[in-house]
User: Fold this.
Amino acid sequence: MTKPVLLISACLLGQPVRYDGASKGMHASWQQQLAARYTLLPFCPECAGGLPTPRPAAEIRGGHGANVLAGQATVRTASGDDVSAAFVSGARLALALAQQHGCTLAVLKANSPSCGNRHIYSGQFDGQLQAGAGVCAALLQQHGITVYNETELAQLL
Assistant:
């Protein structure tokens, strides 16, 4: 029997694609358990959207991911550069890949302006979190894909 495909943030699998050039690899036992149950499909929407690694940190200003998708908020670096187009492009590529592989589930990096599924940073670069999803997580959710973060892995096993 074929395993279901799970879209997963590449940084959670140890790939150094985060804004700071690092990864946020999860514990090997979690990776093994997920790989035993799912075909893992790693993806970084920020890299896919054309942003380099490393890159300046970015946060959503004026709302959350769904607002960025609707053109009502922006994703900006601390210096004010608007990187919204790259975030939206990467999110669309993630959705296309997920749909191509029949994904109904995703595990994305918590609190990220792309991948956060429950919380994102405030947009003020003050370390404060606010309720809301990142751009990629919001787009996936709008299309019926259930998004978890790395603290919710037990729900998938």
Remarks:
- The longest helix spans residues 84-100.
- The chain has a mean pLDDT of 97.
- The helical segments are 28-37, 45-48, 65-69, 84-100, 135-142.
- The two ends are 17 Å apart (CA to CA).
